[in-house]
Amino acid sequence: MVVCFLLDTVMEKVEKKLERELKPGARVASYGFRLPSWQPIEVVDLKPNSRRFSRIYLYKKQA
């Protein structure tokens, strides 16, 4: 599993690296910001009433 705790400004670069290097089925969790092109399999809202970045996006790399 890969865990990302990064700013939105680098997520596109990270996404490209994950596409190249991860095997199908690998899981990725990102706190606060989405991967631009990937569809999350789940979004966990840690603080539903907060404006702060309090979501975890869970992904599974497709084949």
Pattern of helices and strands: EHEEE
Low-confidence stretches: none
Q: Give the overall average pLDDT.
A: 94
Q: How many DSSP H or I helices?
A: 1
Strand order of the largest sheet: 1-2-4-3
Give the beta-strand count: 4
Cα-to-Cα separation, first versus last residue: 16 Å
Q: What distinguishing features does this structure have?
A:
about 60 residues; alpha+beta; four-stranded mixed sheet; about 30% strand
Account of the 3D structure:
The chain is α+β, with helices and mostly antiparallel strands and 63 residues long. 17% of the residues lie in helices and 29% in strands. It has a domain at 1-41. It is built from one helix and four strands; from the N terminus they run βαβββ. The model has no long low-confidence stretch (mean pLDDT 94). GO terms for molecular function: protein-lysine N-methyltransferase activity. Keywords: Methyltransferase, S-adenosyl-L-methionine, Transferase. InterPro entries: FAM173A/B, SAM-dependent_MTases_sf.
How do the helices and strands line up, and which of them pair or pack?
Blueprint (H helix, E strand, L loop, with lengths): L1 E3 L6 H11 L5 E5 L10 E4 L9 E6 L3
Parallel strand pairs: 1-2
Antiparallel strand pairs: 2-4, 3-4
